[in-house]
Sequence to fold (277 residues):
Amino acid sequence: MADLLDIPVHLIDKEALPRDRSHADEEDDHELYMSILLDGLRQPIEVWKKNEGYGLIAGHRRLTVYQSLAKDSDRYAKIPAFIRAPETLPDAMAQMIAENEIRANISPWDRARIIVEACNERIFETPDAAIAALHPRASDVKKRRLRATVMVVETFFETFPDPHALSERKLLRLGATIRAGLADMVLETIRRHKVKTTDEIWQLIAPIIDESEQVLAGAPRLKHPQAPKRMVQAHSDIHIRREYRPDGWALILTGPRATGMLAAQALDEVIRWVKEE
Fold:
């Protein structure tokens, strides 16, 4: 059974592991703060002994509350903690994931992000190794979905203001743009439009996602260099993008000079060209 000790909060490194929840819920955090303040700590945190101090395994929010309260009261200078003994850093991460899978509502984005960060920090060599260690009981289907969402996080990291709002289904659909070779088009489209929310971004890129799924379903795939251009900077103030739609194709004009008059002139040119065919 793990030892239970009261450990000084300043000796605990709460960022010793990449955390599997990157966004905060202010209401939940305040509720936890008041609960600890009024009723005390109901569940000790979990740590492991490092060469200097301790590394946090589970209880990031509880430790954060204690550290905040300790600024005003010595009563919170130490926190009850179970001492775990993971053999390696990957083992410590596996314990953290197992604990939080039960206790915390982890978003599909964060579940994949923790794998990306663990690989970036060389805790695991590959995403497959991370998935095998952190989710040993996952079915083959779940592992495949995790691999797909990991690829999405790697490609679209910091693209969405609130990626936690994206369901697993949306992440998997977004992955289609990578497999169809249209991820760059998604990123460029987002960059050129002043959209502020994740929902607005999703509406913007929905036609590209639809096209990607059509390509993967067997629609003719565009090949370079014979295929017509998909995006072109026609002028320093005009950018033209060609998008697939279920009933045809659309030309999207963006930039300071993308006015209604310019669109009307472009339409006139298309009509003239069609009539000459």
Observations:
- The CA atoms of residues 222 and 228 lie 8 Å apart.
- The two ends are 82 Å apart (CA to CA).
- The first strand starts at residue 3 and ends at 8.
- Confidence is low (pLDDT under 50) at residues 223-228.
